[in-house]
From TrEMBL:
The lineage of its organism: Bacteria, Pseudomonadati, Pseudomonadota, Gammaproteobacteria, Pseudomonadales. It comes from the Bacteria. Residues 29-177 form the Phytase-like domain. This is Phytase-like domain-containing protein. SUPFAM superfamilies: NHL repeat.
Length: 317
């Protein structure tokens, strides 16, 4: 038994910042997902439907080089009419429709981009044209029956794929947050048993340095797969948690609140801005979607943090 809950930030080991990179070359900002494909660090923006970005370190910044692709029209969505209507309305204001919120890669270099607005995944292969994955028709229905994907702008927020490209996990953002998994069967994807492996309601306070007592919904901002484990990025709580891929059960969490909430790095919002996560043997990449807001030191560009591997590695008990 633990004397305090795993999500108590004061009791968690703190991740330590190894490097911080402003991002140049993403004029519309809104960095919403990160992935490492081979030697390339890639990012997506939820404001751009036809580009992903290759991030190259140059002189203390990450220079974004756009890779243009053309997605076919998305398949019919199983989201309810009211949610779809609000997504359509906001797309008219923002000038884009697909709302990419996460990116992942398999060992072959295929990219997987999750569309929040359409609750589906676009595969951008190494060669060939992008295609929408044939996800199970009952995926959204099961998620909604579990209390997820009920609210506009609280839908799919992250995607992770195993190296072989045989298993794909999706993260529902909040109210309720949760995890789903599908398995590849030739050219289609199926749920083995149920699609939903984890679902959780509830609220919590942000870390003490934010100075807020307001309780807000628990969230997932992204999900990553490394060394046979899932890792969730939990924006409000400013932490990364290791979870079992089979059922989403949390095994251990690490906080990045001390580094993120240093005086010069704070944004004037009552929640976190971390949106993208990639975990590897040498540490973790975390990308910030600041929505164009300046932080305390005046920096308005998107930011990518590189954190060192925690003490004992990611598999430490």
């Amino acid at each position: 038994m633990f004397a305090a809950p795993l999500w108590a930030a004061d009791d968690l080991e703190q991740l330590r910042l190894a490097a911080e990179y402003p991002v140049d070359g993403m004029p519309q900002g809104n960095l919403s997902g990160l992935a490492r494909c081979g030697t390339d660090l890639l990012a997506v923006s939820d404001r751009v439907d036809n580009q992903l970005y290759r991030l190259t370190p140059i002189g203390g910044v990450l220079q974004a080089e756009a890779e243009i692709f053309h997605a076919p029209p998305p398949p019919p969505s199983n989201l309810p009419w009211g949610v779809r209507a609000r997504s359509w309305a906001i797309s008219m204001l923002r000038g884009n429709d697909l709302d990419f919120e996460g990116i992942s890669c398999d060992a072959s270099g295929n990219r997987y981009l999750v569309s929040e607005a359409h609750a589906t995944v676009l595969q951008v292969p190494v060669s060939g044209e992008p295609n929408w994955m044939l996800l199970p028709e009952n995926l959204v229905r099961q998620a909604r029956a579990s209390g997820m994907l009920l609210h506009f702008n609280a839908l799919l927020e992250g995607v992770a794929v195993d190296p072989k490209g045989d298993r794909l996990w999706l993260a529902a953002e909040r109210e309720r947050r949760g995890l789903m998994v599908v398995h590849r069967q030739q050219s289609t994807w199926r749920c083995s048993g149920g699609c939903v492996i984890f679902s959780e309601a509830g609220t919590e306070r942000p870390p003490a340095p934010m100075g807020s007592e307001q309780r807000m919904p628990r969230d997932f901002a992204d999900v990553a797969y490394f060394d046979e484990k899932l890792f969730t990025l939990e924006r409000l709580a400013h932490r990364v948690c290791r979870r079992k891929p089979s059922n989403g059960e949390v095994e251990r969490c690490w906080s990045f609140a001390e580094e993120a909430l240093a005086d010069t790095r704070r944004y004037g919002v009552p929640f976190g801005v971390a949106e993208g996560l990639w975990v590897d043997a040498d540490g973790a990449w975390i990308g910030l979607d600041n929505g164009g807001k300046a932080r305390a030191d005046g920096e308005r560009r998107p930011i990518v943090w590189r954190f060192s591997t925690p003490k004992g590695g990611w598999s430490a008990k």
